[in-house]
Amino acid sequence: MAAGPHTFVVADVFTAESPCSSVEDISPSVCLQTNIALSNSRYLGNQLAIVSVRNNALSKTRKQRIALEFGYVNTVFLHDSPQPGLPRKLEIFSETEERSFSGQAVLGTAHYIFQKLEGEDSISAGDWSDPTAAETQQKKQTPKTICRCTLQTKGGLIQAHYDPARQVAAIEIPHNVHIHARETTKDEVIAVQRQLLPHPEETAKMKGSYPIFSIAPGMTFTLVDFTSCPSLLSRLEPGYAPEPTLDAGWAVRVGEDAPSPFCGCVYFLQLQTDFTEEPYITRLRVRVIAAGLEEAASASGCSALAAYLALQKGGRNSRHAYAIEQGMDVGRTSQLCVEVRLNETGTGVSRVSLSAKATFVMEGKLL
C-alpha cells in the first residue's frame, strides 16, 4: 500500500447467510477506516473497524483512543507487509485494552485483504507456502485471486484462506482447550438471569449443572444447554456471566502484556443435524453474555462451544461442523461456521477453523 493518510473501513462480520459447507473446501500517518460486519447483509453481524496504518505513525495511546472513539468490540490496526509475500502485522484493540487475538477481528481483516487489497503487489496467492503445481498454474491463470495469506497477531501467526466463489474466509483458531473439574450450578445461572424465576415449569427442565470450558488459558465460558427448555433462551437479558471456579493455572492468560482474563456464558440450543455429507453439520442457536453485554457474534464463545460438543461426540481423527446463528435478539443476526477436528485418539482437539462472510459498510479518513 502506498504511503499516504491513515484510512479506515468498517465491516459487518458473520453476516446472515450461513457460510457452512465444509471448511475443508477452503484450502488450508493518516488512517483509512473500514467498517466491516461479519454478515452477508449490511448493518447486521458484528461491527469491526480496520485502520490502515502508515509508517508506524500512531502511538499505542492514540490507537487506544481511536478504538474508544469507534466503540466497537474490536478495532484493528493493519500494517503494510514489509515486503511481498511476508505476513502483515495487525494490532487488535478493544475499547479498554490491546488484545492478543480475536477471531472476529482476524477474520474480518482477512476479508478486507482478500476483497479490497486483492490487486496490490504486497499480496499474492501462496507466497507463504510451497505451492503445488496445480496452485502455481492457477496463480498464472488468475494472478489477482488471493487464496490464502498469513497475518501476524500478538498471539502468533494466523493462516487465513478465502473461497472467492462463495465469498467466505476461514482462519485457524489458536487453542489449548480444557474442561474444568467443577461445573456451574443451575442456581448460579439463575442468579445472573433472575428474570427466569417466574417460569418454574421451564426452569424445572434445566440441568443441575453446566460445564466450564476454556478454549485457551484466560478465555473461559460456562456452556448452558437450553435444548430441553428452549423458551428460556429468548427470556435472557444482557448481564453478567456466572463466576466460574477454574482449575489451577487456567485463570490467567499467558504471554507478555497478556490482557485481562475473560469469563463469559454461552447459552445455546442444539437444532437439527444435516447428514447429507460428512462432516455432518449441526445447527446451533447461541447467545453469549458477559460483562453486562451480549455480543452479536462471539468467535471465541462459538469456537469454545463447538470444541466442547465435538469432544463429547468423540471419534478418532473425526471432523465436526457447526453452523451457528447468533445476534437475533440484539437485532444484528450473525452466522458463522466452526469446524473441529479431533486428534488420533478422539480425546483432544487438533484443529479449530472459523469461517464466515463479511460486508463492508463504510470507509473514510482519520483527521
Characterize this entry briefly.
The protein has 367 residues and is an alpha+beta fold.
Structural summary, described in words:
GO terms for molecular function: isomerase activity. InterPro entries: Phenazine_PhzF-like (IPR003719). The chain is of the alpha+beta class. The chain folds into two domains: 7-164, Diaminopimelate Epimerase, Chain A, domain 1 (Roll), CATH 3.10.310; 178-360, Roll (Diaminopimelate Epimerase, Chain A, domain 1), CATH 3.10.310. The protein is built from six helices and 21 strands. It has helices at residues 60-70, 103-116, 133-141, 186-192, 200-203, 299-313, and strands spanning 7-13, 32-37, 46-53, 74-79, 88-93, 98-99, 148-153, 156-163, 168-172, 178-179, 184-185, 209-210, 212-216, 219-225, 262-274, 281-290, 293-295, 319-326, 334-342, 349-356, 358-365. It has a 19-stranded mixed β-sheet that branches. Strands 11-12 form a two-stranded antiparallel ribbon. Strand 19 and strand 20 (349-356) form a beta hairpin. The radius of gyration is 20 Å and the shape is globular. The chain starts with 6 loop residues before the first strand and ends with a strand. Mean pLDDT is 86; it is low at 22-32 and 119-130.
